[in-house]
Amino acid sequence: MASDKVLLVDDEVEFVETLAERMRARGLEVDYTHSGDGAVEKTAKNHYDAIVLDLAMPGMDGMETLRHLMANHPDLQIILLTGQGTIQTAVEATKLGAMDFLEKPTDIGQLIAKIKAARVKRMQLDEKRAATDIEDILSRRGW
Amino acid sequence: MSGFVKSADSRLLWERGLQFLGAQTASQSHEVTNVLNIINEMAGLMGDMLYSADQGRPLNTARLTELTTKIAAQIQRGNKIVRAINQFGHSADKPKAVFDLQEMIERIAFIAQRPAVLAKALLETDFPDQSLSLESSPLGFQQAIFTAFEIALAAASDKRHITIGYTLVGDGVELTVHSADPLGAPTEVAEMADKAVFLRLLVSTLGGRIIALGADDDPHRIIFAFPKRMGED
């Protein structure tokens, strides 16, 4: 089974690089970017099992990035990881389609468990879509 | 009626002063949280490395040394933020005090770095060689500079470069917030119009006067003049 592929989005360079190193040591395939624009660009080119997204970033902030990502890829599994979370932002993020909301500092084991759960959810959505596509083909061709 | 207006102004100044103090303290606490989160991850990585060494893998001492250096740098960064918050918090201790203007602008520019960075703007300071002691309200003075900065930041669009500085003029000082992008008229946006009105009230309460507030006055500058001692012309 291929390793979980995750994109970390955070403007704190040393934070994201260190977290990526720790995740890779645990067998995950990790990519990272320091901006919302970078996240939009990377998700357009790559498939990720989960996106771990910070809220406060220069330019396009986390909420705006979340909106963009969900509009372009509704099946993306996005986990918000922030040091500035409030109940209000957590509720808003969930409404926008975020899968989960974690506060920094978080335990790496807990974060990886969320990423694995994201992958399972993503696979279920892929299977569901494949089944719908097959049914659609069958009904259109009259088989 | 004028007594009522005066009391309404005082209340507004008090409320806005409290909001300013709270907002900047909260903003800087986020910066401290960022530092702590980095240290937390680095400590976690060191723990991972030591666990691997316990399992018989060779310990990468060069990497460990690099991490300890990075943690020390983050602690220095955190200390700088905490010192700034502490000095900022104490600026509300007295309604009037003597302070070094350059130090004060540097502190408020340091505090303003976070909103500037989030807006992708470059914030710099520009001082004359000669420093200056002022006697005024330390909190009110910082709030005036920060409010002018906020108006300039809201207008930042293309060049996104803001400079805060001052020049000595006669027996007083002229403070300038310069924006590389034209400031436009603050009245065009409700929130900025409110800030402009408040800035006028605050500067006048501090015994100063506004010379330019963007738009037709000077498209790139907010300038206000203050006497060296509050209450003197």
Structure description:
The complex is a heterodimer of chains A (143) and B (233). By secondary structure, chain A is an alpha/beta fold. Chain A is 55% helix and 16% strand. Chain B has five helices and seven strands; from the N terminus they run H-H-E-H-E-E-H-E-E-H-E-E. In chain B, the strands form two sheets. Chain B has a five-stranded mixed beta sheet. A two-stranded antiparallel ribbon of chain B has the order 1-3. In chain B, a hairpin with a 7-residue loop joins strand 6 and strand 7. The longest helix of chain B is centred in the N-terminal third of the chain and has 53 residues, at 2-54. The relative contact order of chain B is 0.11. The mean pLDDT of chain B is 91.
Give the structure's gist in a few sentences.
Chain A is α/β, with parallel strands linked by helices. Helix content of chain A is 55%, strand content 16%. Chain A has one domain: Rossmann fold.
Keywords, please?
heterodimer, A: 143 residues, alpha/beta, Rossmann fold, 5-stranded parallel beta sheet, B: 233 residues, alpha+beta, 2 domains, two-stranded antiparallel ribbon
Walk me through the topology.
The complex is a heterodimer of chains A (143) and B (233).
Chain A: E1 5-9, H1 13-25, E2 29-33, H2 36-45, E3 50-53, H3 62-72, E4 78-82, H4 87-96, E5 100-103, H5 108-141
Parallel strand pairs in A: 1-2, 1-3, 3-4, 4-5
Helix pairs in contact in A: 2-3
Chain B: H1 2-54, H2 61-90, E1 97-100, H3 101-118, E2 122-126, E3 133-136, H4 138-155, E4 161-169, E5 172-179, H5 190-205, E6 209-213, E7 221-227
Parallel strand pairs in B: 2-4
Antiparallel strand pairs in B: 1-3, 4-5, 5-7, 6-7
Helix pairs in contact in B: 1-2, 2-3, 3-4, 4-5
